[in-house]
Design goal:
By secondary structure, the protein is of the alpha/beta class. The longest helix has 15 residues.
Length: 146
């Protein structure tokens, strides 16, 4: 494990995209599992992960992924004490934004268009990346930390 893992928040759509063994983005999940990425989560995010994973991938997959996320020592459990309400079109997405701010995460990764609203906000500053943008920016760096 790298001494300083990259702190990130992943929208549920990204988690779904990275868990498959044949996913071209599986390397992101592997980086979480081995500590090169510190996944920042709140209880609310974990509950959404479980709900969506179970719905899309089945109960067993949902439980296995959640168990891994909650057991590995590289997951950072975050307590959010202030809600910024930066996303208005899908207010449920604010849990990811608030987590990223509270955790001082390097970035928030989402392919959801509702998150584009935060690019119009100068404070607090949040680096929003799509999964391909995250790969372009960090894959080489994270691969070097093996």
């Amino acid at each position: 494990m790298s001494t300083t893992a990259l702190k990130v928040v992943l929208d549920v759509n990204i988690l779904i995209a990275i868990i498959g063994k044949s996913s071209p983005f599986r390397w992101v999940f592997d980086c979480i599992a081995d500590g090169r990425i510190s996944l920042c989560v709140t209880t609310e995010i974990l509950l959404e992960y479980r709900e969506i994973l179970e719905r899309k991938n089945g109960l067993e997959v949902g439980e296995n992924v959640l168990n891994l996320i909650t057991v590995i020592p590289f997951t950072e459990k975050v307590d959010v004490f202030f809600n910024f309400h930066l996303i208005t079109k899908d207010k449920d997405d604010n849990k990811y934004v608030d987590c990223a701010i509270a955790a001082n995460a390097v970035c928030l990764v989402s392919n959801d268009k509702h998150f584009q609203e935060i690019k119009q906000v100068s404070f607090p500053s949040i680096q929003l990346l799509t999964l391909p943008e995250f790969e372009e920016k960090y894959k080489n760096t994270l691969s070097k930390n093996n």
